[in-house]
Amino acid sequence: MKHLLLAFISILLLISCSSETENFNVEYGYEYYPLTVGNEWTYQVDSTFLISGGSTKFESSSYLKEEVVGLLSEDGDEKKYKLARSFSNSPDGPWNLINNWTVSISERRATKTENNIRFIKMIFPIENNLSWNGNLFFDSEREVQVGPDKYELYKDWKHAMVLADDKTVLDISYNKIVNITHIDQDDNFVLKKLSTESYARNIGLIESHSECFASLNGKDNAAPWLSNADKGFIITQKLVAYSIQ
């Protein structure tokens, strides 16, 4: 009986240790969305807009700096921060403040409020092929102004996460990547929408890509959208510098 009791205790200890080890090895992924006062990121932003019914193409290149400038509130396990966003024609400045957004992080999610629209940017713990409703806090069919035109930009979005080993942005290679696709829709004739983001461990967002094109009368299936749409845009945002506290 004594030997049986010792064996039973040993099994319980092994199960307990195994459970603790599995919990310890879970990668929650908070380091992909680092929020500390003083953190800042500088991005190269390239934009192309089709205007005047698609007859005119307007292109621009500029720089965007985002800086966590203060802790706004703490509600349970959620911390909300103020994010100052500044514009410049050079990665070295001078910088002109555009606006202030808010970002927050909790045990289960990271959110970002952009122009009063709150997105669930990431879910924790991170997991390959994880999907969620990132537009939970607003009406996805609302129209938004992008450049000179309005779009139902967020309609049919469904956030999906894919983990990757590496990604190169502006000739810099980053390891341990979280790629998030919001939408990848192309009906070939009337509408195309693509929106993606990539995050690197201990850095945050390293690249985003957003495009939307519409053809009122249907486009030539063989022609690229940039040369055959009535309206649309492509906006890319690529990391050029960062400072993490």
Describe this structure in words.
By secondary structure, this protein is mostly beta strands. The protein is 10% helix and 55% strand. The chain is built from one helix and 14 strands. Strands 6-5-4-3-2-1-14-13-12-11-10-7 form a twelve-stranded antiparallel sheet, with no helix packed on it. Strand 5 (109-114) and strand 6 form a beta hairpin. It starts with a helix and ends with a strand. Residues 1-26 have low confidence and may be disordered.
Summarize the structure.
This protein has one helix spanning 2-25; strands at 40-51, 56-75, 78-88, 96-105, 109-114, 117-123, 130-132, 144-146, 149-151, 159-169, 172-186, 191-200, 204-214, 231-243. The protein is mainly beta and 245 residues long.
Mean pLDDT: 87
Which shape, going by the Cα principal axes? globular
Quaternary organisation: single chain
Radius of gyration: 22 Å
SSE sequence, one letter per element: HEEEEEEEEEEEEEE
Distance between the termini: 58 Å
Strand order of the largest sheet: 6-5-4-3-2-1-14-13-12-11-10-7
Helical content class = under 10%
Number of helices: 1
Protein structure class = mainly beta
Ranges where pLDDT stays below 50 over 5 or more residues in a row are 1-26
Approximately how much beta-strand content do the residues carry? over 45%
The profile of the biggest β sheet is: 12 strands, antiparallel
Number of strands: 14
